[in-house]
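User: Could you walk me through two proteins back to back? I'd like the raw sequence and the structure tokens for each, with a short line separating them so I can tell where one ends and the next begins.

Assistant: Of course. Protein one, sequence then structure:
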Amino acid sequence: MIKDVVKELVVLKLVGRENMLKAVKMYYTDNMSPSDIARIVGLAKTSVRSKITYINYIAGFRTVYLLPTIIPVIIDKLKDIKPIVKCNGIKCMCTICNKAYSQGKIVHHIVNKHRRYIEYLVEEIMYELYSLLGVRNG
């Protein structure tokens, strides 16, 4: 579902994974291979490939053809949002609740504890997508 793709990209933005967002956008807009993208962005090619595979999976086979159209729109809307995680070394700090977490647990914290904020951002972006696609919501 498209809403799940939006949520995944919003979480990447909130956690501060700008390089992964850039990689996803490059894959869908520039038709580059994950290996080339990884070399340009500075990520492991398996990370890029697995994120692309996961996004295709959560989009579903009925809507995966829309991804090249909507991914750039979603990522452009995310430019106005600031990450809520600050990392230095192996510790990450959530700027909303001022708690420190390891890098492995910060995504879990953001998704579970700040769910309403994520839902708000997702709904805001979905409204823009509905108008882009010409779909009425409600």
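----
Protein two, same layout:
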Amino acid sequence: MEETKNTGVFLANLTKNFKQIKQERAESVTEDVETTFRRHIEDLCKDIRDIDRTLQNLFLSMAPTTALENPVVPADFNASAFMKKEQELGLERRKLLITLRIMLERYEYYFGEYANVDAVRKVDSTWKHGATAQEVEG
């Protein structure tokens, strides 16, 4: 029986030194964590945009869509409910904005500059690379 030389990847992976294995695992973990951070930041931006649209729709729902429709009648308008909804959405937006700033700060600490600046500036026009989370609270 003729002996064959194993030239596949399996043997090469088994005989790698510890430093090579450690480097590959570190790269794999880093990629997974960076992807998770990036997706969370994207989700926060989307949630803030959704709140902005909801706030805008609060006003649009009071305006007539055609000349034949009546505007909101003051007697039918519940100012307390409107104010409460406005406050809840404002506080939720603020909380998400602070969370976004914290996540961006941590992302840039771990992985360098965040690339999708346009998505962030759509919800926070004052954000810049290297900004700290405390700046949004001030």
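Helices lie at 9-14, 18-60, 79-111, 117-123, 133-137.

Let me know if you want the two compared in more detail.
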